Inverse folding.
């Protein structure tokens, strides 16, 4: 039987994982949207290449900043790396799922 602390860590990891998946989807959508707007300027009006490139860079930068804040182990607060389906923290060994 798991203790309350372990269940809290697993719930917190699930919340962080869900936020991370949503952030990935939003970032991919915005980057793809700006690419479409560049190729088909009549969809939402005309944008300069620089404006669309800037929007892509800003979206990616915001995603990276959010990831640095969000994608951390709930137990030791260390970065969880690139595996979105991580089961155990590589830094402290805490079971996340």
């Amino acid at each position: 039987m798991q203790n309350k602390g372990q269940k809290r860590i697993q719930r917190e990891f699930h919340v962080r994982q869900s936020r991370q998946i949503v952030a990935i989807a939003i970032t991919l959508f915005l980057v793809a949207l700006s690419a479409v707007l560049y190729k088909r300027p009549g969809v939402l009006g005309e944008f300069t290449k620089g404006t669309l490139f800037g929007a892509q860079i800003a979206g990616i930068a915001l995603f990276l900043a959010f990831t640095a804040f969000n994608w951390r182990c709930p137990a030791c607060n260390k970065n969880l790396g690139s595996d979105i389906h991580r089961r155990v923290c590589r830094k402290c060994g805490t079971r996340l799922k």
